[in-house]
Amino acid sequence: MRLTLTTPALALSLALCLAGTALQPLAARERAWTVPASTGVIGVDHAQLDPAFWVRQLADPDRVILDSDAIAAQNTRLHQLDKSIHDLAALQDTLDRAQVSGWIEALSRRPSKALFDERGKPVAKATLDEVVDSINLGAVPERQDTRYGLVVHRAALRTFPTSLRVFSSDDDHDIDRFQESALFPGDPVVVAHESRDGQWWFVVNPRYAAWVEKRFVALGSQEQVLGYGRKAPYRVVTGARAATVFTQEEPGVSELQLDMGLRVPVLADWPVGKAVNGQDGYTSHVIELPVRNDDGSLRFAPALLPRREPSQDHYLPLSGRNLIEQGFKFLGERYGWGHSYNGRDCSGFVSEIYRSMGVELPRNTSDQAVSPALNRIALSDKDSRERRLQIARELQVGDLVYIPGHVMMVIGQLDGEPYVIHDTTGLSFAGADGKTVRAKTNGVTVSPLTPLLFNGKQTYVDRMTNIQRIRP
User: NlpC/P60 domain location, by residue (predicted)?
Assistant: First the structure.
């Protein structure tokens, strides 16, 4: 889940992707739930933490939900219809000041509420003045050439051009309010502006626009940059992450982390017996990765992706089995707001599951939930609890369930009750004594949907806003 610091829904958004605090139990519930002592999470025992448990519930786990042509058509619709997606190929050869300033000002607005540093001390006004001034908005030229670049290393996207970590309270050390998202090796960007100190670029990626350290971006031609993702043959990372081998000959591709769903070109014609950065490549796939030269320019270098690392020569089929198994590969990973802690947040989590099957999604929950490219079931205050429960109990594996500021993926039904996997800092539910229990899961979590509490009077089901179905 990602919303910018100054959006009005920020507190509510955080409360939900962080799963609420200080909640009171509801007076009535549809069924009695137990909290197993082995997990401390309502309705979940250790057997349900095994993906095979959920795959066994499926009548036809390998049935293809959408084939590659249908997925390609859906991705095309996303780029055509979804206003949260930036079409880099459609940008003009030059960018004007109004366009660039608009991108920056939409994100980098001065914080209106108190912030605290990593020691729990208030961030001084002078510090915030420096952060805001570092944007150097007055230096945006009237017109500039459109510059393209490829990301060469997993890199944080920031609200401002700074690594300063700030928090909403003096006892919070997890949710850095200047953290927006992340980019990955091979991601294309347009470079729109440079910070006052010359160390950061404001970049526009198809799914996000924010600040990134310029050392993680290499500048190239439009064809080099946009053509990289179309190269074939290729490998798709199918594990939670994979890594290239160590090499001292080419540090830029040494032990490089590649996250789930990344597509990297394969140098299929690499001669047998020819060393790759000082090592024979017969036990690995010889792939091609972007590298940043000392002058900031782009070049491509061979690298070795060991055959032991989880990857395939095609995207995974979009099936119930793969949706479940891909989600469970992140089970227990620590929650990472905006992809911090080398992890991911709720919307990043579901995005990377679907990315491993070739499906593109918007970055933020607010955009995912209403995307016109997907099969949306919209809910409103007019929908009764009975209808909401009926919808919940008809949810299918892979359905994405949205409440304000949070998204969950359905993994199956047990006795008519939907279960989900989601990335969250915690869950609130009623214990055996009727009192609210707070399970600080702080990571990728399995749970039933209907007993989760939103606040003292409502459950998650009461606050469902949308269901998105990636289906025909």
Answer: 317-471
